[in-house]
Design a protein that fits this description.
The protein contains 11 helices and 8 strands. With 278 residues, the protein is α/β, with parallel strands linked by helices. Strands 3-2-1-4-5-6-7-8 form an 8-stranded mixed sheet. Helix 4 links the parallel strand 4 and strand 5. Helix 7 crosses helix 9, helix 7 packs across helix 10 and helix 9 packs across helix 10. The structure holds 3-hydroxybutanoyl-coenzyme A.
Length: 278
């Protein structure tokens, strides 16, 4: 199968990797061909580390990378599946999908990796039906895919994505459209609450994370987790949850907004509530 992945950030690169690992061809798209190539080089560097650690053979690494292609936009015309994971802005997604709608073959399936936006709204006006295929960070390690049915998503499409998720080694859950779906409706307010506890001076960032790791057996605490997800993403999802429901329990803590304005987004920027600069 040929999968065109639009957006080559943390999620897009991971999605391209899991499809290529299962023998599919993954086209990797970013803002330009040069930028997509830089993301492919980053992916190659991370896979080469796995080879150096003896966790992957050189042969598997080379084969995987040979199936990740950086091409011009037009190469997506004969893709069987398009997955968009561009910025969480409705206009950005709609503009891209509108262009793809015009060039992609009729049988192509359009999926969105949106973390909280409406699948129905993303797909409105397109001739290709739209489904949600929501992966988790880090994509190669996280088993779950939320398969999201929008108001106009055909049942067969939900079934197809469910089966495809199993085929690429993931475990799907089918979710009806709702702000944040299942995971982010629960997880993102949890990260926000971790920041509230810090902001109220209840405990230090280190101790909040130790408490949740050792008290609840979570692999990482809420502040490290937000650093992994990116506080810009956390803030964006909190704002979607709040704007869609007007429920004050989804109000983002002001400290998150301040961190985002300061560029302290977490691991990807080198600093969040913890420091990742080498
Ligand atoms: N990229 C790719 N693979 C990675 C990775 C990364 N950044 N980080 C870890 N892994 C892989 C490792 O290669 C390893 O796989 P292997 O055994 O096949 O080699 C496996 O994950 C375990 O890694 P490690 O032993 O090095 O590290 P840990 O045991 O500390 O696990 C973790 C790291 C998997 C990140 C773990 O801490 C964890 O599960 N954290 C919680 C992550 C989580 O909750 N993610 C969901 C975020 S919400 C989301 O994504 C939704 C979005 O819409 C916001």
């Amino acid at each position: 199968m040929k999968v065109a992945v639009f957006g080559a950030g943390t999620m897009g690169s991971g999605i391209a990797q899991v499809f290529a690992a299962k023998g599919h061809t993954a086209l990797m798209y970013a803002s330009s061909v040069a930028s997509a190539q830089r993301h492919k080089d980053k992916l190659a560097a991370s896979l080469n580390k796995k080879v150096a650690k003896g966790k992957m053979t050189q042969e598997d690494c080379d084969a995987l990378l040979s199936r990740v292609l950086v091409e011009e936009f037009e190469a997506a015309a004969d893709a069987d599946l398009v997955i968009e994971c561009v910025a969480e802005k409705m206009e950005t997604k709609k503009e891209l999908l509108g262009r793809l709608d015009a060039i992609c073959k009729d049988s192509a399936i359009f999926a969105s990796n949106t973390s909280s936006l409406s699948i129905t709204e993303i797909g409105a006006g397109l001739k290709h039906p739209m489904v949600g295929m929501h992966f988790f960070n880090p994509v190669p390690a996280m088993k779950l895919v939320e398969v999201i049915a929008g108001a106009n998503t055909p049942d067969e499409l939900v079934e197809y994505i469910k089966n495809l998720s199993v085929e690429i080694g993931k475990t799907p859950v089918v979710v009806n459209e709702a702000p944040g779906f299942v995971v982010n409706k629960i997880l993102i307010p949890y990260c926000n609450e971790g920041v509230c506890v810090l902001h109220e001076g209840v405990a230090s960032a280190e101790d909040i994370d130790i408490a949740m790791q050792l008290g609840c057996n979570h692999p990482m605490g809420p502040l490290h987790l937000g650093d992994l997800i990116g506080w810009d993403i956390v803030l964006n999802i909190m704002d979607v949850l709040y704007n869609e429901t007007h429920d004050s329990k989804y109000r983002a803590n002001v400290l998150i907004r301040k961190m985002v304005r300061a560029g302290k987004l977490g691991i990807k920027s080198g600093e969040g509530f913890f420091n990742y600069k080498k």
